[in-house]
């Protein structure tokens, strides 16, 4: 009995996930033919609440691509893979305090800010480097033009509020 | 024992590793943030698109009503003579705007640009003069314009401008003014929607007269008086030129018919506004009488399987639009067939592929005499699609969707390299498709709102390699960060969506109730999404939009009645108005305005009681609203408040509100905002 209920519960959950994934997919399905450009897959996955690294994203794309990659991803292939991701709660988003600690690692002398040059250096040379466009986008919102630096605590607070 | 050096290396390695990990974390978080912004941007875009297309669909449903009006559209009884007497129009001494003299010189055209930049207005006399000269010039030109890169080294092609003067000025500023060395082709849709269509036309026509060989204009689907009635040009002209507006509109109608249908560059690159069909016939296109296609709007709605009529064609330049040969009457079926239900049924996006049989099957119905006008409709209205084949474009109501093989066929048949077209707005201002054989170019930036999209133009040199330049003509946008840009555009999209939701409150309530069998007053959010889609048919990803539309959902359920009340509170700006009436008004306003302007045949801003009665009778019979003649008369008289025998647009709209009320009286009892529930049937219009 309990098993049945549990199974029914899981089925409902899966059905909800399916609808969510379908909606998110459709936003980028510009030709309305159940395919999206592979370059949008990362955006779709992230819009569903996941926060994969570029490497993890790359692995996911390999799973959903055709045998001979066409540059397009089909919904039929995407749905089961994404459902599993959601069920397993993979790629959880990063909590605010962990994010703050990451910034603090880059600011060992605990000044409370990073200079523009430092931010650029870390973001474009370390980790999974930003492209020039990504860097410019981040700078435009993060850098306080008067001090030419980013007060990361304030920055996080600002970004998180918007994320609602 | 570890040496100090190895310990040192060990520590620094960890430190570096830590910063590597920290950077990776920050990047991961940031990319997710940006992805969510991008998703919101796309959703916003979709909202605008679906609302706009849905608006077009509403219009399509009334299409045969319009065509009937066109049949009975009688021209003004005092016929203007063909060579209009603009010379008798006096320009007052205190007029400080630009003055033109003919033949036009380059500095006249440049002066026009400058004057409009300073927000001056061109006097009606010069407008008419310019239009007459333009028409004289266009009449001699062929349907397909040929341009060569031998003469002008580069050719710049611009797409839709839609009345956005800022973009035109920006293009000239960034790319340079037209000259013998700098050729331009403007690919249609210069007017409507934006507020400076008149100014754009003046500038474009002026440069065309000054540099006839290097400056060319293709006709777009908005260069059409029927479309202008609905989308803004008519209103703009009448507003800016109160005395001479109707003369201007009349000659403009003619000028539009004389525009080029297509431009060919070096016999290799074909430029036209919309697209092509699976039976492209450039020879036919070159020979046909383009001037006879007064409007493609009515024709486009007629093509769904009904043979034998060709409305919109006239036999002579000044013949009234209903120039149909006797016996060819526009038939009056009232809906566009669509194999998957109403045009905007569930999964609306899909419907665009499934709707309508493949076009080849309809060949047999078309008579030779009218097939040429359909060629023109195809050119002005078609859109490319990714799938193979060619099917009717039911979203637009005219033209077709053409696939990659259709393009390939066209290019091979005429030995062309690629196709440049416009007609569709693109976020980046341009888009390649069909393996880079089709380029869409759209030049109206910030089309929906500041920050909504870029504009672009394309340059071709002798090698005919397209070189694209993008822009966004608004100083403010550059300074806004992406986050802010999205909020402003999103706000505007959401506002439109709220309005649409509100306009359907009654229907929504009905749907919600269906999901609430136990009458708890609550429905799941999933049910909410389904209900909303089944009422609005917008094909939007409602679950993605939920956070912006539904306030704090506690444990996945929604109290739908209070949600609807919140909607109403947001929308109501006037007191004492039953929301169902407001709904109807919201829903019908664009169509009603268009109907008013057609009825107001002399563009006076007023219609006579008689005209009103006739129009109303037609409208109610088409929309199946049952109302007696007497009722209409009473209505007409009561609407005319000042008893002068004329009705202006606001009174006109009021009439529809009242009559809809009397026909839907029974359903108002459940509406959250219903005040008096008088169920006595046809109520007398209230005296004000």
TrEMBL record, chain B:
BP GO terms, sorted: detection of stimulus involved in sensory perception; visual perception
E.C. designation(s): 3.1.3.16
Reactions this protein catalyses: O-phospho-L-threonyl-[protein] + H2O = L-threonyl-[protein] + phosphate; O-phospho-L-seryl-[protein] + H2O = L-seryl-[protein] + phosphate
Cofactor(s), by name: Mn(2+)
InterPro entries referenced in this protein's UniProt entry, alphabetically: Calcineurin-like_PHP, EF-hand-dom_pair, EF_Hand_1_Ca_BS, EF_hand_dom, Metallo-depent_PP-like, PPP_dom, PPP_phosphatase, Ser/Thr-Pase_EF-hand_contain
Pfam families (alphabetical): EF-hand_7 (PF13499), Metallophos (PF00149), PPP5 (PF08321)
Region of interest called Disordered, as start-end residue ranges on this chain: 664-688
Gene3D superfamilies reported for this sequence: 3.60.21.10, EF-hand (1.10.238.10)
CDD domains per record: EFh, IQCD, MPP_RdgC
Residue ranges annotated for the EF-hand domain, each copy included: 587-622, 627-662
Domain of life assignment: Eukaryota
Keyword Repeat: yes
Annotated keywords: Calcium, Hydrolase, Manganese, Metal-binding, Protein phosphatase, Repeat, Sensory transduction, Vision
GO molecular function: calcium ion binding; iron ion binding; manganese ion binding; protein serine/threonine phosphatase activity
SUPFAM superfamilies in the cross-refs: EF-hand, Metallo-dependent phosphatases
KW Metal-binding (keyword) present: yes
PANTHER family according to UniProt: SERINE/THREONINE-PROTEIN PHOSPHATASE 5-RELATED, SERINE_THREONINE-PROTEIN PHOSPHATASE WITH EF-HANDS 2
Family designation: Belongs to the PPP phosphatase family.
Primary role: May play a role in phototransduction. May dephosphorylate photoactivated rhodopsin. May function as a calcium sensing regulator of ionic currents, energy production or synaptic transmission.
Protein name: Serine/threonine-protein phosphatase with EF-hands
């Amino acid at each position: 009995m309990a098993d049945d209920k549990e199974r029914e519960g899981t089925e409902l959950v899966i059905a909800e996930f399916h609808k969510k994934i379908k909606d998110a997919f459709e936003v980028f399905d510009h030709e309305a033919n159940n395919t999206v450009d592979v370059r949008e897959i990362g955006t779709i996955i992230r819009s569903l609440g996941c926060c994969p690294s570029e490497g993890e994203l790359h692995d996911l794309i390999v799973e959903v691509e055709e045998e001979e990659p066409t540059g397009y991803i089909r919904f039929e292939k995407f749905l089961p893979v994404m459902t599993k991701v959601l069920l397993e709660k993979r790629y959880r988003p990063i909590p605010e305090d962990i994010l703050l600690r990451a910034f603090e690692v880059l600011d060992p002398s605990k000044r409370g800010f990073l200079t523009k040059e430092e931010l650029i250096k870390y973001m474009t040379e370390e980790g999974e480097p930003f492209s020039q466009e990504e860097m410019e986008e981040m700078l435009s919102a993060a850098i306080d033009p008067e001090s030419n630096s980013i007060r990361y605590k304030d920055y996080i607070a600002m970004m998180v509020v918007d994320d609602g | 024992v570890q040496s100090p050096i190895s310990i040192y290396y060990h520590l620094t390695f960890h430190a570096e590793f830590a910063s590597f990990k920290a950077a990776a974390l920050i990047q991961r978080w940031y990319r997710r943030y940006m992805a969510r912004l991008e998703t919101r941007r796309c959703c916003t875009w979709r909202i605008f698109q679906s609302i706009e297309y849905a608006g077009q669909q509403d219009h399509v449903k009334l299409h045969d009503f319009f065509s009937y009006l066109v049949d009975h559209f009688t021209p003004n009884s005092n016929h203007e003579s063909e060579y209009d007497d603009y010379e008798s129009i006096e320009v007052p001494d205190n007029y400080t705007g630009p003055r033109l003299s003919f033949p036009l010189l380059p500095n006249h055209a440049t002066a026009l640009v400058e004057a409009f930049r300073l927000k001056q207005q061109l006097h009606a006399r010069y407008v008419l003069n310019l239009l007459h000269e333009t028409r004289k010039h266009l009449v001699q030109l062929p349907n397909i314009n040929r341009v060569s890169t031998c003469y002008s080294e580069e050719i710049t092609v611009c797409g839709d401008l839609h009345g956005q003067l800022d973009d035109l000025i920006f293009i000239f500023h960034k790319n340079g003014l037209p000259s013998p060395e700098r050729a331009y082709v403007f690919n249609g849709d210069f007017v409507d929607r934006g507020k400076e269509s008149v100014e754009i036309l003046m500038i474009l026509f002026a440069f065309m007269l000054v540099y006839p060989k290097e400056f060319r204009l293709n006709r777009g689907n908005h260069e059409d008086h029927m479309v202008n009635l609905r989308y803004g040009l008519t209103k703009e002209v009448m507003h800016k030129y109160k005395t001479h507006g109707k003369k201007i509109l009349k000659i403009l109608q003619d000028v539009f018919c004389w525009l080029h249908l297509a431009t060919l560059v070096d016999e290799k690159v074909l430029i036209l506004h919309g697209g092509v069909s699976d039976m492209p016939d450039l020879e036919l296109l070159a020979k046909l009488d383009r001037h006879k296609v007064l409007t493609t709007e009515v024709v486009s709605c007629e093509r769904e399987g009904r043979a034998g009529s060709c409305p919109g064609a006239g036999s002579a330049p000044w013949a009234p639009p209903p120039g149909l040969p006797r016996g060819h009457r526009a038939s009056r079926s009232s809906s566009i067939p669509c194999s998957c239900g109403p045009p905007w049924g569930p999964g609306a996006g899909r419907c665009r592929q499934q709707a309508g049989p493949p076009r080849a099957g309809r060949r047999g119905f078309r008579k030779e005499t009218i097939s040429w006008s359909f060629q023109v409709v195809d050119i002005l209205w078609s859109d490319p699609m990714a799938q193979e084949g060619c099917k009717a474009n039911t979203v637009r109501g005219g033209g077709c969707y053409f696939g990659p093989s259709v393009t390939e066929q066209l290019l091979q048949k005429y030995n062309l390299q690629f196709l440049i077209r416009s007609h569709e707005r693109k976020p980046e201002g341009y888009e390649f498709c069909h393996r880079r054989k089709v380029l869409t170019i759209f030049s109206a930036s910030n089309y929906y709102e500041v920050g909504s999209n870029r504009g672009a133009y394309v340059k071709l040199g002798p090698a005919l390699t397209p070189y694209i330049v993008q822009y966004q003509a608004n100083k403010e946008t550059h300074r806004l960060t992406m986050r802010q840009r999205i909020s402003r555009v999103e706000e505007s999209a959401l506002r439109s969506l709220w309005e649409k939701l509100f306009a359907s409150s009654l229907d929504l309530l009905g749907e919600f109730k269906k999901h609430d069998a136990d009458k708890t007053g609550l429905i799941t959010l999933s049910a909410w999404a389904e209900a909303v889609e089944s009422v609005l048919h917008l094909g939007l990803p409602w679950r993605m939009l939920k956070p912006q539309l539904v306030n704090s959902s506690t444990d996945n359920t929604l109290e739908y009645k209070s949600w609807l009340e919140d909607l109403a509170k947001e929308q109501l700006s006037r007191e004492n108005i039953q929301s169902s009436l407001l709904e109807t008004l919201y829903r019908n306003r664009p169509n009603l305005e268009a109907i008013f302007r057609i009825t107001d045949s002399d563009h006076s801003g007023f219609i006579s009681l008689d005209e009103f009665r006739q129009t109303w009778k037609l409208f109610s019979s088409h929309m199946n609203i049952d109302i007696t003649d007497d009722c209409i008369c009473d209505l007409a008289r009561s609407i005319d408040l000042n008893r002068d025998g004329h009705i202006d647009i606001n009174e006109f709209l009021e009439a529809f509100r009242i009559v809809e009320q009397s026909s839907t009286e029974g359903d108002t009892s459940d509406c959250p905002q219903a005040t008096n529930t008088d169920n006595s049937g046809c109520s007398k219009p209230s005296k004000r």
